[in-house]
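pasting for the record
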Amino acid sequence: MPIRFLPAMAVTTLLVAASASAAPERARASAALPPQAMMLFQQGAAQCPINAAGLRGSGATVTCFCPASATQDGTVWGTDTYTDDSAVCPAARHAGVIGPRGGSVTFTVQPGLGSFAGSVRNGISSSIYGPWDGSYSFSEPGVVGVIGVNTNQVAQCPATASEWRGRRSGTRCYCPPSATATQGTVWGSDIYTDDSAICRAALHAGVIARSGGAVLITPLPGRNSYAGSARNGVSTTSYGSWPGSFSVGK
């Protein structure tokens, strides 16, 4: 099995810095988080730690925020259940609880496992590993953004659903009022081409009002034709064959 090195934890407010040096084995000692930091995490008020090693053995359920900049960088070991030194925000993206735009996540600290399976999901590759002393998993795995429905708990919807083409699970995201008023183009009725403006399509479908709200976007295969119509103040356009589609729900 290849040697792994535990990345150094960043120094952030109220967190204890724990730097791991490159060594033949991954360091198994972890610095416990101070009570003030734990309180912020439990309230969902803090940015997520780089990893969960400092929470090992606590059994804590933590809610924290992943900025978009933190969703890509960092090593991840495991699938659905991750080693506690795996980078939290990329692991959350791998699990499907957030997308590349980030958002709030909730994870629960768990005991170690005898092995961790690697996989590729949602643009993140995780690695295989053997026994490790601590782990964690996320709430509602495999569905982006289902942790909550308010603006602070799910990421804002992207302009279109084309980045989710081929995904099997639905994605929950938030449409702000400004996005329902934007003159984005929409093709189809009830089922829309995946390059249609998501929030305008949601308004057309009657899932949200002009005040916006949370929507569930379900990717679908392409269709041979899409019928246009006028609903709820939004006019959509007819189109022929297109390789990807989506529907909108609550």
